[in-house]
């Protein structure tokens, strides 16, 4: 008899044991190519590199090596030579795969990520004489690593630098490129008449470019807010009091030193915090990015609908398959993929924004786990931006479809005719009573032809110039200032 039993799952190859490791999530799997640039900024390795960077810069600052701190802060600390500063700054600069593994091994012993960073740097400082000679000062200032710091002093600055880099170097440039692409399409199609649909029903005509321009304008407004974001930081000790600082070196102006250091990193100094920097700036930023996402989601659903209506034709990708069984199909998968990723991204950003503004009393660890999802939040948004950009690049306007839709809906001219009758009535023209009601009776629920509309206009008794102007009007020409609005205000 044939064996119809399925192979038991216990007999399968264990995918979790395959080397190199298989990604658990799609961002590090099938979509990695689209989001890989974020790894330099918001991955776990990037976090540790920024921690090393902040610790190193703090040592340099305490030895009088940055603007705003003229002399060594801690008595007995020597001012570093340019070669010693370069040696320290090379530690984060050369942080690669071997160093990632080394740091991970140290953390296995410390069971504390920031303490592992401290020990990692001290190893490098201990090795400095081999590179700089036996007279180097680095060995004598080793205890300045993590001096007077709590872990959150290092973490908050590291996250601020990471997020700033991810936004300004990766996410925002891609977002700006997409909006520029959309704006270019708006200008290109600014004069293409389009039957508008309000509540899904034929309404006052517009132009395709004006509708795309509205979305570009909305997205640009959000980008202006995101471009203006503040990235805050603090370095003031275990509960924000400079307690350890003043106990160790009571004569120093620690708030001034803190401010100089935070601004040296290119961040905005937050003078009043608990153990943690309050993360309000993160909540503000993530809310703005989520709003950008949602407007982009609106664009995706609108374009999807225009494709469904035939306004846009999709240019097939050579060799691509639209359906496994229906060979004719060219599906709007770029926009559908974008919708899903924008929803995931916005949900993560909403959670980040809601969670990060609260910390019990002086500190709890909810933010630690939460912030590790910053990368996926931006990753799903970046993936969506990539998909929308590629989707838009393969669209062509079917002007025959747009023209036919307009020509089959002459009733939309009921609005301008009754408006002209109102103006005529105000000007004293007799016989202009009840213009709205008369056009409603003519058009509501009825298909009206061009001849029907022109014959009706001829019976109204309008001034000759007004009647002539309305008789010449068509659904395709009744677009108001749409083209001018795009060309005047979009940029």
Description:
GO terms for molecular function: N6-(1,2-dicarboxyethyl)AMP AMP-lyase (fumarate-forming) activity. Residues 359-479 form the Adenylosuccinate lyase PurB C-terminal domain. Pfam families: ASL_C, Lyase_1. Residues 29-338 form the Fumarate lyase N-terminal domain. The protein has 21 helices and 6 strands. The strands form 3 sheets. The protein has a two-stranded antiparallel sheet with strand order 1-2. A two-stranded parallel sheet has the order 3-4. It has 491 residues and is mainly alpha-helical. It has helices spanning 32-35, 39-42, 44-62, 82-93, 97-110, 113-126, 128-132, 151-188, 208-227, 243-248, 254-264, 280-309, 333-356, 366-371, 374-392, 399-407, 414-426, 435-443, 450-458, 464-472, 482-489, and strands at 193-198, 201-207, 232-233, 268-269, 312-314, 395-397. The longest helix is centred in the middle third of the chain and has 38 residues, at 151-188. It has 3 domains: 38-137, Fumarase/aspartase (N-terminal domain) (Fumarase C, Chain B, domain 1); 151-317 and 330-396, Up-down Bundle (Fumarase C, Chain A, domain 2); 410-474, Orthogonal Bundle (Ribonucleotide Reductase Protein R1, domain 1), CATH 1.10.40.30.
């Amino acid at each position: 008899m044939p064996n119809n039993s399925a192979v038991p799952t216990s007999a399968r190859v264990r995918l979790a044991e395959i080397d190199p490791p298989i990604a658990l999530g799609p961002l590090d799997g099938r979509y990695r190519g689209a989001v890989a640039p974020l790894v330099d900024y918001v991955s776990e390795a990037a976090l540790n590199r920024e921690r090393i960077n902040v610790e190193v810069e703090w040592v340099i600052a305490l030895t009088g090596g940055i603007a705003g701190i003229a002399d060594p802060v801690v008595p007995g600390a020597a001012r570093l030579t340019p070669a010693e500063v370069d040696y320290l700054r090379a530690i984060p600069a050369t942080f690669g795969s071997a160093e990632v593994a080394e740091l991970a091994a140290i953390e296995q012993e410390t069971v504390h990520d920031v303490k592992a960073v401290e020990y990692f740097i001290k190893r490098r400082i201990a090795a400095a004489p081999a590179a700089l000679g036996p007279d180097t000062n680095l060995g004598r200032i080793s205890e300045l690593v993590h001096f007077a710091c709590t872990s959150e002093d290092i973490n908050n600055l590291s996250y601020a630098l990471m997020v700033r880099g991810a936004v300004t170097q990766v996410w925002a440039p891609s977002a700006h490129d997409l909006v520029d692409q959309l704006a270019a399409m708006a200008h290109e199609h600014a004069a293409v008449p389009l039957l508008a649909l309000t509540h899904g029903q034929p309404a006052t005509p517009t132009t395709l470019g004006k509708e795309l321009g509205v979305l570009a304008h909305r997205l640009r407004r959000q980008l202006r807010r995101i471009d203006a974001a503040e990235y805050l930081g603090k370095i003031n000790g275990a509960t924000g009091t400079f307690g350890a600082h003043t106990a160790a070196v009571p004569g120093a102006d620690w708030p001034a030193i803190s401010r100089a250091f935070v601004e040296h990193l290119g961040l905005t100094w937050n003078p009043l915090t608990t153990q943690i920097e309050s993360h309000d700036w993160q909540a503000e930023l993530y809310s703005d990015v989520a709003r950008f996402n949602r407007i982009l989601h609106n664009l995706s659903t609108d374009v999807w609908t225009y494709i469904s209506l035939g306004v846009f034709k999709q240019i097939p990708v050579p060799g691509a398959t639209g359906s496994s069984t229906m060979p004719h199909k060219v599906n709007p998968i770029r926009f559908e993929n974008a919708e899903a990723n924008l929803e995931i991204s916005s949900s993560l950003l909403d959670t980040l924004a809601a969670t990060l503004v609260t910390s019990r009393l002086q500190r709890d660890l909810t933010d630690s786990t939460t912030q590790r999802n910053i990368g996926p939040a931006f990753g799903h948004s970046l993936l969506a931006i990539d998909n929308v950009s590629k989707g838009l690049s393969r669209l062509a306007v079917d002007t025959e479809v747009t023209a036919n839709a307009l020509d089959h809906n002459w009733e939309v001219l009921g609005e301008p005719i009754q408006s002209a009758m109102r103006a005529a009535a105000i000007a004293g023209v007799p016989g202009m009573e009840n213009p709205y009601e008369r056009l409603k009776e003519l058009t509501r629920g009825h298909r009206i032809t061009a001849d029907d509309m022109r014959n009706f206009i001829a019976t109204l008794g309008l001034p000759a110039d007004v009647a002539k102007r309305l008789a010449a009007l068509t659904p395709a020409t009744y677009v108001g200032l749409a083209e001018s609005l795009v060309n005047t205000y979009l940029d």
